[in-house]
Design goal:
The protein is mostly helical. 64% of the residues lie in helices and 0% in strands. α2 packs across α3. The radius of gyration is 13 Å and the shape is globular. It binds calcium ion. The site of calcium ion has 8 residues, from loops.
Length: 116
């Protein structure tokens, strides 16, 4: 499954990032990642913004099909773009080892922080 292959680097990254940053700071980093990848005009991640900005996050090895796959997997409301919440949920889903922890955070914090 292409998405799981594409997510391999994320799986390696996240647990060590959480250890280093702590859970709350890690969620902040995810939000920063969203801001880096989004189209600033509309505040959403689109295929074009993902392609344009992905090198900022060291994702320059990703191909068009992987971007399409990521958008399709993460787009929960079907508008063809990723909102901040959709992006954070996708990042957690791409890192299976984090799912249990993220469920605990959801219980502790109720929800992920939203951009003001
Ligand atoms: Ca969406």
């Amino acid at each position: 499954m292409a998405l799981m292959e594409a997510s391999y680097d994320f799986e390696d990254h996240f647990p060590s990032m959480i250890e280093r940053l702590g859970a709350e700071a890690f969620i902040g980093e995810l939000c920063n990642g969203f801001i880096l990848l989004m189209d600033v005009e509309i505040g959403l991640i689109t295929f074009e913004s993902l392609k344009r900005n992905s090198f900022l996050l060291g994702l320059h090895d990703m191909g068009d099909d992987e971007f399409v796959c990521m958008l399709r997997e993460g787009d929960l409301d079907g508008d063809g773009a990723l909102s901040q919440m959709e992006f954070c949920i996708l990042m957690f889903r791409l890192s299976p080892g984090l799912m249990d922890e993220s469920r605990l955070w959801m219980m502790n914090y109720g929800t992920l922080p939203i951009l003001a």
